[in-house]
Structures are given as structure tokens and as C-alpha cells.
Amino acid sequence: MVCAHHDLEQIIEGSLRFGYFIGYRDTFSFVEDLEEVSARIGGLIDSGEPERAVGLYELFIGGCYAKVEEIDDSGGSFGTFVEGLFCRWILARQAANADASETAEILISWMDKDPYGFCYTIEQEAVKVFDRPGLAAFEKLIYDRFESTAESIDLGESVTNQELAYLNRRSVEVLKTIYEKRQDPDSYIRICDRTGLTPKDCEVIAGIYRKHRKYAEALDWVERGIEMEDEGYSGRDSSYQLDRMKRKLFAKLGRREEALESAWSSYQQHPSTFTYEELMEYVPGAQRAEWRLRAVDAAGQGSLESVIDLYLELDELDRLADQVRKANDERLERISHYLTEPAAEKLAGPFPEMAARLYRALGVRILAAGKSKYYHAALRHFEEAKRCYQEAGREDLWDALVADVCRDHKRKYTFMPGFEKVVAGEEVFTERPFSDRVHQMWEKRGRNRG
Predict the structure, then answer these.
(1) pLDDT value at residue 249
(2) Would you state the pLDDT for residue 232?
(3) How many CB atoms lie within 10 A of CB 415?
(4) What is the DSSP letter of 425?
(5) Which among 133, 192, 222, 381 counts the fewest CB atoms within 10 Å?
(6) CB 425 within 8 A of CB 402
(7) What percent of the chain has pLDDT over 90?
(8) Measuring CA to CA, which residue among 131, 111, 105, 106 is closest to residue 123?
């Protein structure tokens, strides 16, 4: 057994690859290897050796802190892994029947001395794995700290002690997380009474009451939060879910007409696929066709960026084409290709001139940004623009586009030869696109079966 334990220690050390810097591109696979080691340690809990798992997790956590200067964790996956190690360590200690207060004390100590931020907001995950005694011990220690720091702040010490103010703020954050996990609105409200209420707090309290099916109480807190927002609250604890929660609570309380009225108001202010879907949740089945037409008419008052997806979803291509017709070229070029590319593909058949304008915008957008690695995509967009302009009988617009590109981008030497081929109608790409080649491979495999 001792040998096996020693073997796992060596595996942990080897997996951390001390002395080697882990670059950004290698971080994901590196963390995947660490996850496998962590899973092996977790197997000790299932096999009845949780005490060994505790010691190995502690060794692993310490090793990760020693490794942190040798890794580019810009993506955050290593930090997330370490956070998970702490949670598995908690589970191991609980399986080993370790003292709950000691577990909480050790965790809080790590939270206090955490120069790399691995334990920042760790309470959000820890409360999910603490058993009832563990959560109670964690709450008691944090609450005692809150009372101590609050008393010192009342005496004016916070003016000269930023660390004290930070500990008090973090204690409040942790307590709120605990009370939300425990679905305890009374304790949550009491802490807010002492430290100040935010719209986000109103959202959390309302959510707790909603889960308890106390919809009237939940609605009261939602409306209180909305009132705070309307009065100009602009702190980091704002809430963007209160209006949506209000409508859901209206429906729960049998006030569907008010829910529909609120959803319609929200849609009119910001027509989009998201607000349309929510609106239709509250529309009676027999009235859906009528409300669909009202929604489509109202969408014309929204920005093109917000309604492209909506018009595509509802197959309102004539309205989409009209919106594109009204927008100038500069406006179209500012819209993300995630929106304009599928719109151009849909419009190419029934409205080729409008599709050509979108393909033009897609190509010019790439050139204006100078993103040479996407020049191949720009050439494809210009090929499509040319085809659509010709289909629409607007060769004059294609000629104007060619003149603009030659004037403004003639020094882009890696782009212009390909563009000249597009203009001349020559083949630009000698190799078939990746998607075509893959589809051909699958077709071939299908033919060869049986």
C-alpha cells in the first residue's frame, strides 16, 4: 500500500512537468492529463481509502501552486482545474469523516492566502459539495468573521485598513452564496438589511421564493429590484433578468395578459429573435398568427443588426431585403459576418442584388481590417457578389465595386492577384473547398459499403 501511495505521488509530480513551461496552446492537453491523475486519486474514495485521497489531493494542490509560474493560463482551464481539486479534497475529507470545522478552517485559510486567485469565488463551487455539517461549519466561521470585521468597521478602522474592508465584503459574498444554496430567504434578507440591498440581491431573493412557489413574495422582490434599476442603480450588482422574471411570475399568478403586455413592450423596444420567442410564450394559441404579423411589422423599427436573425427565422425575406436596401454600404460593412453571411445566402435566390450588397460588405470588411489570413474568404465573397450582381442585371454595380477595390487596396499584393482572377472570370481556387472534399469522401465510403 505504501508503495502504491508513493507511486501516485510520483505520478502527480510527473504530470506537473516541473521545469517545463506550458504554453497557451498546450494548456488544454496538459490539464486533460492532470484530470486523469485527479480521477485516479478520486478512485481511492470509492475503494474505501479516503484518507489517502485527502493527502494526495493536498499534495496535488500544493504542486499546482508551485507550477503556476510555469504555465500560460490565459484561458483559465488550469485555474478551473485547481478549483476542482479543492472541491474533491472537501469530498475526500467528508468521506474520511474528518472534522467539518477543520475542513472549513483550512479552506478559508487558502482563500485568504491565494496570490494566484485559484480560490477567488471558490465558495460558489464549494457550497455544492459540502454536506450539511460542512456547510454549517463553513457558514459559522464566515459569519463570525463578518461580525468581527463589521464591528471593527463600525469603530472606524476601515478608513485605514483596506484589508479589513475586503474581508468584510468577501464574507458578505460568501454568506449570500451559502444562503442562496440553502434556499434561505430570511437569512439572505437579514444580511442585506445590514450591508445594503442591490438589484442582484432582489433577483436572488425572488428566485428563492419562486422555488418555494411563493410567487407573490417573489414578485414583490422583483418589482423592488426594478424600482432600484429605474432610479438609476449602476453598480456591478445590477440585474438584467428582473423584467423577464416579472413576466414569468405574472403567468404563475394567472396574470397572463399583464405578462403579454410586458413582453410586447420589451419586444417593441428591442425586436430580436430572443424577445420574439419570449413574446410568443404568452400569446394564446388562437392568436399566434395575428401576433406574428404584429411582431413582424414592429421589427421594422429595430436596427438591422437586431432583426436579421429574426427575419431569417421567420422566413421574412422580402422584409429583410427591404432593410438591406435602406442601409448604406458603410452600415452593412459594420455588421458581423455571423449575421450577414447567412442572410446573403438566403437572399441570393429571390433578391440577388441585395445578396450582392451583403457579399460586397463581407469582402470589403475583411480588406478594411487588413486580415490577410482571411483574404481567401474575401475572394469567395467577391465571387458571389459578382455572380449575384450579374444575375440581377447590375453589372454597373459590380464594375463600381471593382474600381473601388483596385483604388483602395491595390497595395495588398497577396490579395490583388486573386481578385484580378475573379474580375477576369478565371478559376481562383484550384483545390476544392474542405467541406466539398469531406462530403465527397463520405459519399465514396457510402458507395463502397456492401
Answers:
(1) 97
(2) 83
(3) 22
(4) T
(5) 133
(6) no
(7) 79
(8) 111
Bridge partners for 22 per DSSP: 71
Q: Using CA atoms, how far apart are residues 46 and 117, in angstroms rounded to an integer?
A: 30
Nearest C-alpha neighbor of 38 from the set 75, 74, 76, 92? 92
In whole angstroms, what separates CA 155 from the centre of its chain?
Answer: 42
Q: Hunting for cell 478559508 — which residue is that?
A: 108
Rounded to whole angstroms, the Cα distance separating 295 from 54 reads: 59
Report the b/e string of 41-65 with b at 16+ CB within 10 A. Answer: bbebbeeebbbbbbbbbeebbebbe
Element housing 120 (H / E): none
Q: How many domains does the chain have?
A: 1
| Each residue's pLDDT tens digit, 204-226 | 999 999 999 999 999 999 999 99
Residue 355 belongs to some domain of the structure: yes
> According to the model, what pLDDT value does residue 287 have?
95
**419 domain residue, yes or no:** yes
Q: Which residues on neighbouring strands pair with residue 71, listed in sequence order?
A: 22
R_g of the chain, CA atoms, integer Å: 30
**What's the pTM?**
0.79
Place of cell 483559465: 76
In Å, what is the CA distance from 396 to each residue of 112, 308, 381, 400? 69, 27, 18, 6
**Separation of alpha carbons 193 and 380, rounded Å:** 61
Q: List, in sequence order, every beta strand (DSSP E) within 148-203.
A: none
Domain of 380, in residue numbers: 337-450
**φ, ψ at 71 (rounded to 5°):** -150, 140
Residue 389 lies in a domain: yes
- 369 inside domain: yes
pLDDT of residue 365 exceeding 60: yes
C-alpha span between 277 and 196 (Å, rounded): 35
pLDDT tier at 301 (50, 70, 90 boundaries)? confident
Name the phi and psi angles at 73, rounded to 5. -105, 40
Type of residue found at 147: E
Residue 358 and residue 347 in contact, taking contact as beta carbons nearer than 8 Å: yes
Least confident of 225-239, 272-286, 296-310: 225-239
